[in-house]
Amino acid sequence: MPFAVEFFVALDDEVASEMGPQYRSHGLPAFMCVGIYPDDVMGDWEVLLVGGAATSPRVVVAMANDGLEVLELPERLGSALTQASREQLVETARAWVGLETMKDEGISVKEAVEILCEVAGLARTAATLRQPLYCWAI
After folding, report:
1. What is the pLDDT of residue 78?
2. pTM
3. pLDDT at residue 2 tops 60
4. Distance in angstroms (rounded) separating the CA atoms of residues 101 and 121
5. Strand partners, 5
6. Pairing of strands 133-137, 69-72
7. Taking 80 as the threshold, does the pLDDT of residue 115 lie above it?
8. Phi, psi at 80, each rounded to 5°
9. Distance of CA 130 to the CA centre of its chain
10. Could you tell me what percentage of the chain is helix, strand and coil, using 3-state DSSP and rounding each to the nearest 5?
11. Neighbours of 136 (CB within 10 A)
12. Listing from the earlier edge strand, what are the strands of the sheet with 5-9?
């Protein structure tokens, strides 16, 4: 499991590539959680919200020896999160924790709803600011 994951809105790849646990007071719109693999859950969310095949997140900083990676959320997922109602996010969170791949992850429906609603809020902020939505994981 990643120790920490932070979803955040940043101006561009250059700013995003400088993020990580050492820059916790960056002042950007952000949400931190633990216990998920962001590239896996982004695919799950996209399939559950939109259907079809998941789009891979774009790698901004590839994982290296320090274990940190930075990803940009797929546009299709960002758009779906921006447009989703709270009811759709709650239904998606319930379906997400029920997936076979999530059975042993220990995330409750309540936590899943919080994570998904927070990330959807960031997607809306990113859309309003016309900036990308990223995440780092370590």
Report:
1. 97
2. 0.94
3. no
4. 25
5. 33, 137
6. antiparallel
7. yes
8. -65, -40
9. 17
10. 50, 15, 35
11. 26
12. 30-33, 5-9, 133-137, 69-72, 58-61
Handedness of CA 94, 111, 29, 132 (dihedral sign): negative
How far lies 116's CA from each of 22, 29, 64, 80, in Å? 24, 15, 27, 12
The single-letter code of the amino acid at 21 is: P
Q: Which single residue is written with the structure tokens 């969170």? A: 93
- Burial (CB count within 10 angstroms: exposed 0-12, middle 13-18, buried 19+), residue 135: buried
Structure tokens at 71: 């990803």
Neighbours of 117 (CB within 10 A): 18
Strand partners, 133: 9
* Cα–Cα distance measured from residue 75 to residue 62, given in angstroms and rounded to the nearest whole number: 19
Residue 1 has pLDDT above 70, yes or no: no
Opening angle at CA 102, ends 45 and 52, nearest 5: 35
